[in-house]
Amino acid sequence: MPEATFLDATELVINMGPQHPSTHGVLRVILKLDGEKVNGTECVIGYLHRGVEKIGEHRTYQQFAPYVDRMDYVAAVSNGLGYCLAVEKLLNIEAPPRAQAVRVILTELNRIASHLLWLGTHALDIGAITPVFYCLREREEVLKIFENYCGARLTTHAFRIGGLQYETYDGFEEEVKKFCDWFIPKVDEYEELLTNNRIWVGRLKGVGILSADECKEYGVTGPVLRAAGVQWDLRKAQPYSGYEQYEFEIPIAENGDTYDRYTVRMEEMRQSTRIIRQAVDRIPSGPIMGKVPKVVKPPVGEAYVSIEAPKGELGYFIVSDNSTQPYRMRVRPPSFVNLQALDRMVRGGLVADVVAIIGTLDIVLGEVDR
Amino acid sequence: MADEQKPEGSATPPPTGGEAAKPAEPPAAAAPKPAAPKPAAAAHAAPPKPPAVMVTTPWESEITQLLKERFGGEITEFSTYLGQNFLVAKPDAAIPILETLKLELDFDYLVDVTAVDYPKRPERFDVVYILYSFARNERVRVKTMIPDGYTPATAVTVHLAANWLEREVFDMFGIQFAGHPDMRRILLPEEWQGYPLRKEYGILQQDDAWVRENMGIESGQ
Lengths: 370, 221
Description:
The complex is a heterodimer. Chain A is of the alpha+beta class. Chain A contains 15 helices and eight strands. In chain A, the strands form three sheets. Chain A has a three-stranded antiparallel sheet with strand order 1-2-3. A three-stranded antiparallel sheet of chain A has the order 6-7-8. In chain A, a hairpin with a 7-residue loop joins strand 7 and strand 8. The termini of chain A are far apart. The model of chain A has no long low-confidence stretch (mean pLDDT about 90). By secondary structure, chain B is of the alpha+beta class. Chain B folds into two domains: about 55-185, Beta Polymerase, domain 2 (2-Layer Sandwich); about 190-220, no CATH class. Chain B has a six-stranded mixed sheet. The longest helix of chain B has 12 residues, at about 95-105. Chain B is globular and about 60 Å long. The termini of chain B are far apart. Classes of the chains: A alpha+beta, B alpha+beta. At the A-B interface, helix 1, helix 3, helix 8, strand 6 and strand 7 of A face strand 4 and helix 4 of B.
């Protein structure tokens, strides 16, 4: 009997990406369709692979720091924080309190910027054109703060191993506070545009459901996990950089669908603002740089340190052989792991939902491919 | 960070044999691995040469208790470094250990699978599984040492998350996982020759033939 599965007339295989506006970068998804229904997908990734881990083995610890910004380039500050914490762990040192507070402020600002870019582009994918302009307008203010602080807007390289390179500029606190006051009403504004919008709700509710158990099974973290009802955030579970001092809530939702992931991220922006306000009110005085040897040579050993990046758990697993360069530099990227669940989420859905689901996963291909 | 650390000073006492079941002995036989270092510098002085191996402290808890009972000599080491717990197991035991950890000890989230290359060692690669338990809020690393060409069993049967992670390990190190549903390269092109994260692979090295054929240029550098 000749087998002719490839001639199955009901199944259509089409290619989405890598050059596609709604794949948010060079992601290629091969869709197996039955009419409008998605029977399965396959992700083809690696278009942006630059060998970051290999480069890490050939640079000194300090030299590698700017590279990490180029993985998740919309949340470069978070990448830098995770990296610095990992190397500090290996060196068994801690950044001084002042540096930690400034780190928290900048990281949370970056979380807001990252979520804003997500919201704008996600809404654009769904067909809501307006929010992206608002989101980029607000994000611009965050980037201005970064620019004033360290001269760079996107790939900031804001932190150094052991603390900070730069003292805050004059008026930093006021500017950040002003931003917070100005920003909160803006979130309400987005919500007015979207939250009860019939098209928005219709396109997102019940789409791409991923249950809590499935999230754990696939290793999915971040807002996607929280939208499935798991109240887990590394900032609370294993606080770093002084997060235990700040009061904030971990927003969760219960259905684990695309709409819930939207509400969770919206609330996260408010919570981030709350953290920033507390942190900026009590930045301790003191040095901004810890006692770090001129030549960073961590003792032989290994450590895994992870933080709650805007996309989920971002981890660094570093093996040191007591030389100036890491022996092994492993990055555990949230986007890469989260993207793996795409297939599970889109199966049985419609083609149009694929776009919504890729958007809601909030992946950055620079981080997926490294 | 929350987990506290123990610097220098408190090294593993060289195999005193006392410490429960059987660990301590086997790994020392191999090449440069944990077990028993110990430079004289007990007085916490920094300058005299730092130790050439990881200065770990033994790790004991109900988790190690249960695993020791269950796996005995299959697990050669339970250690803590910088407040982070890990165990070293024989390659064949890795997947049963992951399963026990998941089903009986709540380590239900496979954070990462990765490898480390030690070309000079007879067991060339470390395969590292990083696990987390939501219920315990605790992490564990499971490490195995495998020679080149050995095909460890896949962890996909226990954690679906291992699928892409193991594909990446294969892509970068050339470690094949037995029983993996889709053992192909993931980041590099499928026809690419060589495994970039192996130590002998140069930083500027590339698959010239592939680049010539597919990109029509001599070099990407």
